[in-house]
């Protein structure tokens, strides 16, 4: 299943400037999602991070992965209309910087869902190279 930005907005509550995924290329509700983020030079964050050396902050990469996982989780009928919050971030590793002009591919596989808690593994890549990997815990409220 694929989702455009309008369909993503029906699942997660994020809006500009905090909506950090542009489309979902593959979605298996409750199991996994693959999303895409096109990083542009016009984003406000690059005015200060860093002048003359624009680098997307790692925290925004992890947030984009979390939003991808939230789409997979909140697309389940029992969680429709809910919000997924961070319950934890473990083992975050950064391997490459992300710059304007890059397209991040964001993959999240949900490993366990119990009651209102979900656990998943996320991987962000640019041009097939690993950018970030992380273990995420989601709390559904």
Description of the molecule:
The protein has 141 residues and is of the alpha+beta class. The protein has one domain (5-140): Thiol Ester Dehydrase, Chain A, CATH 3.10.129.10. The protein contains 2 helices and 6 strands, in the order αββαββββ. Strands 1-2-4-5-6-3 form a 6-stranded antiparallel beta sheet, with helices on one face. The longest helix has 17 residues, at 58-74. The model has no long low-confidence stretch (mean pLDDT 97).
Compact description:
This protein is of the alpha+beta class. The protein contains two helices and six strands, in the order αββαββββ. The protein is 17% helix and 41% strand.
| CATH hierarchy: architecture | Roll
Order of helices and strands: HEEHEEEE
Number of domains: 1
Question: How many distinct beta strands?
Answer: 6
The largest sheet has its strands arranged as 1-2-4-5-6-3
Task: Output the CATH homologous superfamily.
Answer: Hotdog Thioesterase
- CATH fold call: Thiol Ester Dehydrase, Chain A
Mean pLDDT over the residues = 97
Please state the structural category.
alpha+beta
Helix amount, in percent? 10-25%
Q: In what range is the share of β-strand residues?
A: 35-45%
Q: Calculate the terminal CA-CA distance, rounded to whole Å.
A: 25 Å
Question: Largest sheet, described in full?
Answer: 6 strands, antiparallel
Rg calculated over all Cα atoms? 14 Å
Name of the top-level CATH class: Alpha Beta
* Helical stretch tally: 2
Can you tell me the residue ranges where pLDDT is under 50 for at least 5 consecutive residues?
none
Enzyme class: lyase
Active site: 49
Catalytic activity: a (3R)-hydroxyacyl-[ACP] = a (2E)-enoyl-[ACP] + H2O
Pfam families: FabA
């Amino acid at each position: 299943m694929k989702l455009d930005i309008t369909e993503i907005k029906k699942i997660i509550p994020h809006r500009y400037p905090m909506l950090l995924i542009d489309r979902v290329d593959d979605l298996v509700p409750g199991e996994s999602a693959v999303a895409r983020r096109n990083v542009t030079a016009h984003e406000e964050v690059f005015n200060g991070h860093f002048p003359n050396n624009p680098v997307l902050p790692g925290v925004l990469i992890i947030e984009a992965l979390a939003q991808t996982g939230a789409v997979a989780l909140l697309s389940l009928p029992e969680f429709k209309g809910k919000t997924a919050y961070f319950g934890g971030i473990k083992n975050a590793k950064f391997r490459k910087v992300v710059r304007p002009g890059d397209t991040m591919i964001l993959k999240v596989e949900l490993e366990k869902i119990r009651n209102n808690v979900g656990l998943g593994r996320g991987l962000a890549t640019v041009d097939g190279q690993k950018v970030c990997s992380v273990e995420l815990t989601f709390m559904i409220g």
